[in-house]
Amino acid sequence: MAISFLPELPVYTLLVLLALPLYYLYFGASSRWKNPVALPRNWPILHMFPSFVANIHNLHDYYTRILARSGHNFRAHGPPGSGIRLFVTCDPANVRHIFTTNYTNFPKGAEFAAIFDIMGGTLFTIDGEPCRRQRAKVKAVLSSPPIVARFAACCRDKLETSLLPIFSHMASTGTPFNMQEMMSRCMFDLAATPLFGVDPGLLSLDMPSMDAALAMDTVMEVGHYRHVMPTYCWKLMRWLNIGTERKLGIAHMVLQGFILDMMERRTTDRCNACSDEEQDGVDIVSSFVNDPDYADFGLFRAAMISLMLGARDTISTTLTWTFYNLAQNSNIVTIIRNELSPIASRKVASGLGAMLIFEPDETKSLLYLAAALYKTLRLYPPAPVERKTAAANDFMPSGHEVHAGDTIFICLHSMGRMETLWGKDCLDYNPARWLSEDGNSLIYAPSHKFLAFNSGPRMCLGKDIAMMQMKIIIATVVWNFDVQMVEGQSIEPKRSCLLEMKNGLIVKITKRQM
Ligand code: HEM
Predict the structure, then answer these.
(1) Whose CA is nearest to atom 32 of ligand 1?
(2) What is the pLDDT of residues 42-60, one digit of tens each?
(3) Which letter does DSSP use for residue 449 in this model?
(4) Which residues form the signal peptide (predicted)?
(5) Alpha-carbon gap, residue 256 to 85, rounded angstroms
(6) For the domain 47-272+297-511, what is the CATH code?
(7) Cβ(155) to ligand 1 under 6 A?
(8) Burial of 197 (C-beta count, 10 Å sphere; 0-12/13-18/19+)
(9) 112: helix, coil or strand?
């Protein structure tokens, strides 16, 4: 019997292979018929998982399309056993509920902490009482006047000693370069120097290797895979030490080595310094080294890595998207220069050289410049998706029910692109939309609608420092140089938890003739 069956085996195999796609086509079509057309296709067994995998190259646009059609919210499920039970939203009323009104019911959760295990136990991955304690500490450090002044001084020095000389060289030689990489190097130095009191010197004409910066990129890229994959998949890969998990393991080692290196260099520098008093309090790490809460070196190291990630990636990403938009809108560049012009005239009159650097107190009140940055942050938030977990069953203001254990994805990127929230021209890069009619103030947008810096009790603690640094850098570059994009490049987001550009941003710059 078995022997007589064997010759027909290829025929049966062929039939099964043909039947499978037909089965999926049939059920795909019928499920589409049963589902509202706005939602991803609900396949048998695999549910919506194939739709997400097929769109993984640009999940943000995919979410935006579905959220726009579905009234700002949708639910999605993965295959049975995958643990994927999502509620995806960009509805400001739901965001206020999740981040403020009922925020204790929406912690980041254990899954988030596992995804970003390199920052395990630190403010960025914890909830509840330990979080309140760490947050109070970090808040006190980041708002202390000497530390804020240090961030400003480092930024000024970096512009004077590195960025302007490098840009002048690129301009005089006509060399195209990757603005994203340049901003990444610059912000790496500007995050590390106030943190450790040591400048890693990545922004330099000889372009030294940037292993630790690349390792930080890997953390964000593999974090993205971990968010969309069933947990057991990436945990199995980690156990087998293969693929992206192997890459992440190496990145962790590089980052841990970087922290050790910085601490050693800091000790050497302190030995060479005049006195301890002169050094104390001028770097952030001083507030952590003698704190018994951070006596565990693993936690201390994780805290330093998370501060590096929080302070570098967010700003370099925002700066790159701002330069991208300015390069395409020369009228906006002209308005920014007009706003800078009175300050520049005063500087020139007081005898300062041809290359001008703008100071924090000079750029603080510049509204149009702030509006341009806000416009970038609305359309291109560096952290495009926030993740929360529902601790208990709850009803959203939109009427949707969420169940304990559901994962909530809050799509900031989509929220900034909803016509229903921001009007028909919401995709235009028009900073004036952020200004009042008389142009004398910025229009207020509540943080649950403009979420780039987060909202509620977990608001970003570095917002003021970030705005200060970004204003100085944009003002200084825009005043001294013309930036043009090199033609023929494709600008698309990387698969990452950060909204970086996949292929970078290749530009050419010329020195302004004044
Ligand atoms: C354009 C610049 C920045 C943006 C858009 C931004 C955005 C954010 C966002 C969205 C969060 C919430 C993250 C989460 O809970 O998952 C956050 C948290 C945080 N940010 Fe920023 N950030 C920026 C710059 C900075 C800088 C420069 C610093 C430090 C100097 C900083 C320090 C922090 C800290 C400590 C938290 C944790 C707050 C908490 O969990 O309670 N950020 N930021």
Answers:
(1) 462
(2) 777 777 778 887 888 888 9
(3) T
(4) none
(5) 34
(6) 1.10.630.10
(7) no
(8) buried
(9) helix
